Amino acid sequence: MIGERLESQFQVPWFALLLLIAGLGLMAVGFSTQTSPMLAASVLPLAIGASLLVFGLPPQFSALVGEDGLEVEGSGGPFVIPYASIRNVKANGRPADPRTASASAAITVLHDGGVLHIPGRLNVPTAEVLRLLVDRVPTSGGREVNPDLADYLQRQEMYFDAESVATYCAARRLASGSRRGLRAFAVGLILGGVIETALAASGTFDVVWALPGVFCAAIGLVLFITSFAETAASGPLLKQWRKSSLVVGPTGLAMVQGPIHGEVRWPELLEIRFQSKPRGFPPTPANLVPGILLRVKGADIIIADIYDRPLCVIYGRIMAAAGRAEPLVEEL
Prior knowledge:
The protein is of the alpha+beta class.
């Protein structure tokens, strides 16, 4: 893909258009029959639909795939994102998995300079872009691991060369998908609720419409505020997750992640599985959290999506070190 240009394709905002059509229909019936409930009911879909059209549409995206980085021209460009600066990659807000990503998945790239949101519809399949990105991300992360792993790391580097030992530290920030649509929806709720409440208070609508107006405005405000919260998409936040570290070496791995402190040798692993989304059933912690499942006798351990490299890259490094299979991402 080197030298190829990535460009976003136009997406028809069906949801926003349907809301506007529904609102206009209710308004037309209300005016024709002179019934204020119909007019009051039209306010919310009109406000949300208009907000989604004005604030929710993704910006035009354009980028050139360079040898050493992604040269972004649209979406706030121009600027260059070196592949070596990429810390995480997500598809539709989940850990990126080039094997299963849909052809129109939205991509989130967390890098040293910030976050880049690549729209879901491009002139090339999403899976190809994901393979390009994760293939060129360095397979080892930061070397400043948790002090509890310092001795393990030192022993690994003493017996093996440093390049055969990979380390991963907790990310400085967590990557999440674009929340432009959610914020636009929240703004629509707030505007619709405020307008409905004001018209009810002025006597244009029955005063009973003030209650749903206040409720919608309050819900919209809560959604808007929470859209800025930094959360771990891999599930509930681990306690002290910023102190997490992972060391992967030729003989096994060691990890500090929340309550987990320990080492595992490769022969002890019964199963290694990368799950980019929760499995859900049976409802065990290992199935409810996206991540890398390490199954040992009597326990399931999940490597959560909180590190300074994409999970699929970490998974590939673990599989190669354990000698179980080839890395997840093939060289392009």
